[in-house]
Amino acid sequence: MLGPGVAWYLGVAAFLFGIGALGVLLRRNVLIVLLSLEIMLNGANLALIGFSRHAHNGAGQIFALAVMAVAAAEVCVGLGLVVAIHRRNLDLDVDKLSELRG
Amino acid sequence: MIAGAWLCLLAPLAGFLLITLLGTRISRVAAAWISTGSVVTAFGGAVWSFAELWADGGERTHLSTAWTWLQAGNFKPGLEVLVDPLSTMMMLVVSGVGALIVLYSVGYMHGDDEERRYFAYMALFVFSMLLLVQGGNLLLLIVGWGLVGLSSYLLIGFWHERPTAVAAAKKAFIMNAFGDATMVLAFFVLIAHSGSLAFGTSFDTATTLSPTAVNLVALGLLGGAAAKSAQIPLHTWLPDAMEGPTPVSALIHAATMVTAGVYLIARTHPIFEQARTVELVAAGAGALTLLVAGFVALVQVDIKRVIAYSTMSQIGYMFLGAGVGAYANGMFHLMTHAFFKALLFLGAGVAIHALGGEQDIRKMRGVGALMPWTKWAFLVGSLALVGIPPFSGFFSKDSIIAAAMTIGWYGWFLWAAALVGAFLTGLYTFRLYFVVFRGEPSPFVREHHHAHHGKEGPWTMMVPVVVLAVLAVIGGWLQFAPIWTPLTSWLEPVARTLPVAEPTSWQEGISSALAVGLGVAGIVVAWLVYGTGRIAVPRVAALQRLFEHKFYFDELYDAIFYKPAVATSLVSHRELEEPVLLAAGPDIGETAFDTGRGVRRLQTGLLRTYVFFLGTGMAVLAIVFLLTK
Amino acid sequence: MLVAASAGNVLVWIVWIGAAFACLASAVGVVTFGNPFYSALALIGNLGSLAVLYLLVSAEFVAAAQVMVYAGAVMVMFLFVIAYIGPRQETPWAGGPSWPTLGAVLAAAAIFLEIIVVVALKAGGKLSHSEHVNATFGSPGWVGRLFLTDHLLAFEITSIVLLVAAVGGVILGAHAHRLEASAAKPPTPGRRPAPSAPRREQPTEEASA
Question: Average pLDDT, stretch B448-473?
Fold first, then answer.
């Protein structure tokens, strides 16, 4: 194969995943959290595609497409939540939206 | 005679069941007469049985088995009825005196709200007592034993709205239960060794037991006898039992139930003879009781309590006689005592009934002036009790006193105690007579005495009194030891007097003279102090307190048994129940709550913490995978 | 691991490094920007560079789908919402590093390192060779055939998930007035409440999500 081996792709995917995790943990704005979530998903997608190429198996690409579809669905619902929260004039802060607690 | 015995046993049971099952469908008077009729039938059966046994002449022991009652390995007691001289004698006494007393109750309890219950219990009691004396093996004996204890409890606490009556019933039952327990333990030893509780087998087994074992068995039997017969140390229940109606006191606590202990010793005398020491201990307990009871009776002011202590004292005589081995003498005194003690109780009952329930002798002063028949009957009973010839007590009591002389140095102590007891008997009995029945009627009596349609009492009450008075006179003429002893001969196949307990004529004569003399001396002293008042009532403060507190037995038992038990229960309540058991439930709940509260803190509601935990968990899992793969 | 440098190879490497760098930088930008608008734009850049990486491994269909669906639809949706919410500037990094921050960084670093360790150490031997692929690998026809034969179930379930998400989105975005009105009026007994189907009479609604 031309270019870097699958290990490099995996390294990039790991980094993406880590950055995304960091974003989810550190940021308080709901929208940024959702975006970081997207980054994590993309990291996973990259790993899947890399392995698909490495193992000459189409399942990886199928899986990646399914992940994309699910990510889209999840963003749809998440943004619906954000809009609903905004309509009630609540602060879009993850730390403040904590009523579902014990 | 077997049919007579079964009739005697089952008639009162039928009466009890009939009254119980018919309940309020029959009138109270009908229930009373059913009960009386059943006991009279029982007496008829007893007479029949006795007559046939007497006529039979040959075999003296007839055992009739209805069916095998239990079966446990080798242990197969049957539902057996025994007809032998001892049991027929007891059958006659129990059913005869019982019939008279139940007839008396018809008048005494007339108008009581719960008359039916009373008569049902009386029939139950007569049945239980007959079962006790007719039982063909030790198992049935103890069944009867327990049932008479139950009947006694039910009848003492008959007027159950009175807390004193309920307390007295409990006290009686608990003390009797203690005696029952020792008896049952003795039976366990017998079963362990011989596998049977039949009389013959048990008595044979007793000869093969080790001395320790046979002493234990005898002690167990003695414990039961002492509890049932109110001998020291298990005597404190009897005076309290006077809370029951007077006929109950007469029947149960004078004539029959309390004599069951004497019957037991006479019946199981082969076992006792193997444990001679225990038998002598029984005699000693009897002697001690007769003295203590005599002293305490001197200061009692309730007429029934004086007679109750007198009962305790006379049973002490019976124990003395049976303990030294003169079983026939003990049984003879049992019979005469049944007559005159029942007479005394019933006579007192007539006076109590006429005065509307008053029992304090200080208030009852002089009631004899208004009730001559009762007065004469009470006099007859008192003379019989003190043992003045030719009344019945003389013949039976003196032979016991004489028998005590012959058994060695210990016997002299018993003899001396018995003679002192004779003096005391004269003193307290005639104190009672002179205070209550002689002299001018007190203001209380004048105010409260009400005659029954112009007579002293209804015929149902007066007839038994008269009959018992006659018996108290002639009952002793059955035997005049050592000249004429038909009763001893009658009982000989079953309860042969030990040779060591047979006094010579000289001993009999001396004992009799001394006993009569001391009794008369007691009467004279009582006359001087209480009859005419010529001598003031001696008051020694310490003795007065001692006697009034009944030698502090109640206080002693309270301190030994009751207070520690209460203290233990309070301590365990405070230390064990409340903190541990009662708090355990709420504490477990609290712990669950606290755990939940702690776990709840994990649910912060913050997205970040959830993701953080997710991430950390994932990292840990990954490490684990790495390490294991 | 480095193959012999040939002209095509070098080009691939250069493109790869550029795309990878853009990818990582934009990812860091998403997480660090204060303005959500900038973060969304950074994410679009991230998606684009990822598409380039996909092309380099012959996953053409996935790359196209990434650009069209992800960058084209999902991110546009994001931008719509961000525009609706309005401008805001946060200062997420004010106050300096705190304990939660440190813990999060450590956790993320741990995950990253673990993956590297697994990839480098444990799977070292197996990742070095890859096979040649034929021309149909990654083509739309190939992907479509796989969807409809081997992975039909995933295909169908994904479509259901999308349906559910669409319904959820509509419900979540239902106009506040309509919801509050139906909540304020208690249902009269014996009569079912009015159906909550969208009423055409009032023109000022439609969920904007």
Answer: 83
